[in-house]
Amino acid sequence: MNNPTLYLKYRPQTLDELDSEFVRESLKKIVFSGKIPHSILFAGPKGTGKTSAARILAKILNCESASQKIRGGGRAEPCGKCEQCVSISNDSNLDVIEMDAASHRGIDDVRILRDAVKLAPAKALNKIYIIDEVHMLTTEAENALLKILEEPPIHVYFILATTNPEKLIETIKSRTTNIIFKKATEGEIVRSLSRVIKGEKINVDDEVLYLIAKAASGSFRDAVKFLEQLLIGNKKLSKEIVQEFLYQRKAFNPQTLVESLINKETKKCLQEISEAISSGVTVGNIYLAILESLREELLAQVGIGEKKILNVNKNELVKLIKLLGRSSRDLSDSPIEELSIEVAIIEWCEGGKVRENEEVIEKTLPQKLSVAPTIPKIDFSEKKPSPSLKSIDDELWRKILIAVRPINTSIEALLRAARPIAFDGKTLTLGVFYKFHKERLEDFQHRRILEGVAGQILGAEVSVVCTLTEPPVRKIENKPEEKKEELVLTEGEDPDIIKVAKEIFEN
User: Is the same domain home to 167 and 315?
Assistant: First the structure.
């Protein structure tokens, strides 16, 4: 049998070992009350201990030990030694059933569950159903589950877990006892890591643990994974080893990149980003490292800490931090991982030049559109497109791209792999070159924004339909026959972006 990962090996086994203080104290109050609810909802980000807490509750409900010495007053803790506790820890307990709602999300799955809950436990006192990612159930399945939650058999307990509680129907949330799992604090993560290093009999400075905790972004699981990777091949963890691992500082120096940003050296910034990614640094860690450096400088400017960057004022720092913060939120929607940070860098370094061209066009657009973060309601009663407008020319298409950019840069990037192929005054048909881009553009939120922008510019309510099409090609003169065609991904005249891209990729 393979050795378990450190996260599984040292996952909390008792309430006292739960590292989130709020969760720990909330569950203790529930258990000490002697009235554990039959339906509980754990809601919070991944890696914050929801499944571990659910298993601890399952042990408490089924623990066979009556020892006050082992379990404490009110039997608040599981003994960890009886058959029930051991089998739950080993994932072999027949009466503790863990379900993934993402794989069992239909009405038929819940009907099977409805029939199963009527059966008596095989060996335990109670049957415990732990349903992970419960928000993935279909609406019909959620309503069927609701009926079970309203009148559960006396021997059945449900522990529901979700990363997206807002997607659950309100009636399920109102029928359950809700416990919120917040992102872990750095102190809580250090507490978790300390249990691991004590069990592994290794010495690690608190400063190192806090570095790992900071990089874990509120996730206990990610922090332990980082620690485990660091321990491979390293007998002793120093601050330098951890920093090199977390930010790949030999290949990527955040301070150098920040200085290039402050000096608005576009080409140098983009080359450093490219080299960092090539060496294995994730875009998420690049954002984290840059923002950490900028934060330190900002605090230094108000008298906290030491200044490291010259020739930058507080207002400029705040603008850059806000720009990168907004850009980082587009990361998950970007079809190309590094695209969001590249666009942000170009906007920061070349902003004046890029906006100079855009302002001419933006003056012709409705005033609300140029700065609106969302698409407002539009009165189309007096706005009708010209009867002769039966196609979208390059100028109109460019206006749409420019108008989309400040609202969502990812949508604009997707649209650069698409072209309008038909417009009948109501329906705009886009030819999209790649399946992935088509699927993303058809996402409800993306399509809503695009239809709103197109409607503003064309002066009519517009529906957007996407279809896969072949990308255009451009003839290249004076080249050998076999090289006469070149794939065209961007035809729009965006001189600044094209200029920067050429400088990077032609060197």
Answer: no
The CATH number assigned to the domain holding 206 equals 1.10.8.60
Indicate the residue among 206, 227, 247 that finishes a domain. Answer: 247
HEC letters along 64-78: CCCCHHHHCHHHCCC
The total domain count for the chain is 4
Q: Residue 490: in which H helix or E strand, if any?
A: none
- Rounded to the nearest 5°, which phi and psi values hold at 50? -65, -45
Q: Helix or strand or coil: residue 119?
A: coil
Taking alpha carbons only, the member of 207, 288, 193 closest to residue 247 is 288
pTM of the complete model: 0.56
The dihedral over CA atoms of 232, 234, 237, 243, expressed in degrees to the nearest 10, equals -70
Residues 205 and 261 in one domain: no
Q: How far apart are CA 327 and CA 338, in angstroms?
A: 11
The residue range of the domain holding 384 is 365-471
In which residue are the tokens 């875009």 written?
A: 283
- Please classify residue 226 by burial: count the beta carbons closer than 10 Å to its beta carbon, then call 0-12 exposed, 13-18 middle and 19+ buried: buried
208 Cβ contact list (under 8 Å, min separation 6): 237, 238, 239, 242
**CA distances from residue 6 to 70, 90, 195, 230, 486 in whole angstroms, order as listed:** 26, 15, 10, 12, 51
Are 117 and 266 contained in the same domain?
Answer: no
Is residue 11 domain-shared with residue 91, that is, in the same domain? yes
Helices (H) and strands (E) in the chain, counts: 22, 10
Edge-to-edge strand list for the sheet holding 96-100: 96-100, 127-132, 156-162, 39-43, 177-180
Q: Choose the final residue of a domain: 180, 204, 238.
A: 180
Which whole-number Å values give the CA distances from 364 to 183, 400, 413, 422, 474, in the listed order? 45, 12, 23, 23, 31
Nearest to 12 by CA among 260, 217, 181, 241: 181
Token pair listed for 180? 């919120």
Domain-embedded: residue 487: no
pLDDT, mean of each 10-residue run, the chain (507 residues): 78 94 94 92 93 96 86 83 94 93 88 92 94 92 93 94 92 94 93 92 88 87 89 77 69 80 89 81 83 86 74 85 86 74 88 50 42 41 47 85 82 87 87 84 82 83 86 56 43 43 42
> Distance (Å, rounded) from C-alpha 160 to C-alpha 179?
10
State which amino acid sits at residue 59.
K
